[in-house]
Amino acid sequence: MGKRTQAMVVYDAAGSQQRAAKRARPSADAAAGAVVPYDVMTPIDAVPLNAVAPRPRWVPAPPAIIQQVPEEPAYLREHILPALGLRDDLPVHFVDSKRVTDTDLDAHQNRFRLPADGVLRHLRPILTAEELDAANLLHDPLPKPRRQPEPEPPLQLESLTAEEGKKVRKKRQGMVHGGLPVRMVDLAAGASGELLLSRWSSSSGTIVKGGGYMDFVRRCSFREHDVVDIWAFKQRELRLFGKTMVHESHLHLFIVKRDGTQQQSRQE
């Protein structure tokens, strides 16, 4: 028998490590069926499309409402102010516009109501603190808490008069309201006598009232449902070296129809 020649085998360390790693690596089929723990899974940061809120659309703010001041009547300084004995360069202030209601012409109401917003914005700034206090306009009225009506003692409503021998009813007197002296002016009726400007504490309504109001309003040019502009002016006293140069006047409220035409006075 012949002798077998033995070959020399060289040990490859790098190749041995690669083969060992290949044997330790699991196959694709085995990995597909393996159970992966829940805590090692990374959550998906996604939101369904239907759940995404749409972006709000930008809507521009509405423009501020600016009240248009009507043009001052041309005849005011030429005729009205001189006829009242006032300076023709007197500052005249626009108060507000309103629609004449039936209550403004009602003899039972006996008052002319002024727009509350115009009184607060335009009439109050031209009055002094004493004048505001007289008209009950110095402080804003506080809201009154609701109270249960208290029982009142019975009133003696009937009394027998010795002269007529008839039963008459005694009327309960209402609350006495003061006021700031004021005169109303209309082109057809002229100037009224001294009236009173006051604000009711109960309803916060500012009104002009007083004796002679109905006699004045019957001669005025405006009717029910007419739109009128209200102008206010007041002449302040001016003294120079102890001498009165310009006298103090009442507060005047000039009522002008919006269409610019003044009708003839009413027939009583």
UniProtKB/TrEMBL annotation:
<feature type="compositionally biased region" description="Basic and acidic residues">
    <location>
        <begin position="141"/>
        <end position="150"/>
    </location>
</feature>
<dbReference type="InterPro" id="IPR015300">
    <property type="entry name" value="DNA-bd_pseudobarrel_sf"/>
</dbReference>
<protein>
    <recommendedName>
        <fullName>TF-B3 domain-containing protein</fullName>
    </recommendedName>
</protein>
<keyword id="KW-0804">Transcription</keyword>
<keyword id="KW-0805">Transcription regulation</keyword>
<keyword id="KW-0539">Nucleus</keyword>
<keyword id="KW-0238">DNA-binding</keyword>
<dbReference type="GO" id="GO:0003677">
    <property type="term" value="F:DNA binding"/>
</dbReference>
<feature type="region of interest" description="Disordered">
    <location>
        <begin position="139"/>
        <end position="174"/>
    </location>
</feature>
<dbReference type="GO" id="GO:0005634">
    <property type="term" value="C:nucleus"/>
</dbReference>
